[in-house]
Structures are given as C-alpha cells and as structure tokens.
Amino acid sequence: MQCVSLTLASVLPSLRCLEITQQGGCPVTGFYGSNCSIPCPDVNCQYCHIETGYSQCCKPGYQGHHCELACNKGFYGVDCNEKCGHCREVNQCHHINGTCLTGCAAGFMGNLCKIECDKGSYGIECNGTCGHCRDTNQCSNVNGTCLTGCDAGYEGDLCKTRE
C-alpha cells in the first residue's frame, strides 16, 4: 500500500502514514514491534505494520511493495508523485528531493529548476541578457530570441546587432 501525497509532500508525511501512527502504529519511523524497537525489514520503509513489519509507507524517493524501487526517471518525493523540473539532463533529477544534480536546462533556475529566468535574461544559469526586443516580455528565456521582433535600429534573432 502506498501513501497518499500532500501538497507539501516533501515536508510533511502523507495522510496515510499519519493515519498509521494515530491508529496504534509506531510514532518513530522505520520501527515496529510492541515497544517500537525492531527496525523495519525494508531499509527504505518509512512506516511498517506494528506487528508484522510489512511495509506500509515508503520513504520519499522510493516505491514498490517493499519500497525497493527508486522513483521512475522524472519523478521524486513521497509516492514518487512530484514531477522533476527542467534539469539540464533529465536523468539527473534526485529521486528523493528533486534537485537537479547537473544544474538546470537553459531558461530555468532554482534548486528544482522550476523557475523561469527573470524577464530580460535567458540561457544556462540565466546568464544571458536579452537584446533590444520590440516587446521586452517577449524574449525567449531559453535562447534569447526576440519573439515579436526587434526595436527600431536593431536586427538579428537576438536583436543585438545595429542596422
């Protein structure tokens, strides 16, 4: 049985896992038994049945009946329900916390690479500065091209060349 994720799944335990502790389960993660001192047999198990030790909720980043599988590529967190951001390499999203291990793809920033570059900047690490676009809000955050053309007196895809 897998946990039901919450909006703040990376911070809070899922409702299902919380239910287990409130219904006589062990309040300490990873343990079972009458005095909650026996480690759950599955290393990636967050909560296991208080009597049998059977996995009931996996730690963030894991899935499967015995919590033996890391999240599928492109997903992370509790029940593997969170979608990875725009990582430079799609296979380099950390399965537990969603951080991009090799950085963000062009046009995105932040630990999870889910934030577009600020207006006026673009590219890897948002280090590029947009040119003289006709509409400053229409500069591609990925490659800096001016989507609606250049200001008067400028030309080229990036509108950085004087006519």
Report mean pLDDT, rounded to a whole number. 86
Spell the H/E element sequence.
HEEEEEEEEEEEEEE
Terminal Cα separation, in Å? 65 Å
Radius of gyration: 23 Å
Sheet with most strands: strand arrangement: 1-2
Shape: rod-shaped
Q: What count of helical segments does DSSP give?
A: 1
Q: Could you list the spans in which at least 5 consecutive residues all have pLDDT below 50?
A: 1-14
- Main sheet makeup: 2 strands, antiparallel
Structural class: mainly beta
Number of E strands: 14
Specify the helix fraction band.
Answer: under 10%
Query: How many structural domains does the protein architecture include?
Result: 3
DSSP strand content: 15-25%
Protein name: Scavenger receptor class F member 2
Keywords: EGF-like domain, Receptor
GO molecular function, one term: scavenger receptor activity
InterPro entries: Growth_fac_rcpt_cys_sf (IPR009030), MEGF10/SREC1/2-like (IPR042635)
List keywords for this structure.
1 helix; mainly beta; 163 residues
Describe what this molecule looks like in 3D.
This protein has one helix spanning 15-22; strands spanning 31-32, 38-39, 45-48, 55-58, 62-63, 69-70, 75-76, 82-83, 108-109, 115-116, 121-122, 128-129, 154-155, 161-162. It has one helix and 14 strands. The protein is mainly beta. It folds into three domains: 15-70, no CATH class; 84-116, no CATH class; 120-163, no CATH class. The chain is rod-shaped. The chain has a two-stranded antiparallel ribbon with strand order 1-2. The protein has a two-stranded antiparallel sheet with strand order 3-4. The N and C termini lie far apart (65 Å). Keywords: EGF-like domain, Receptor.
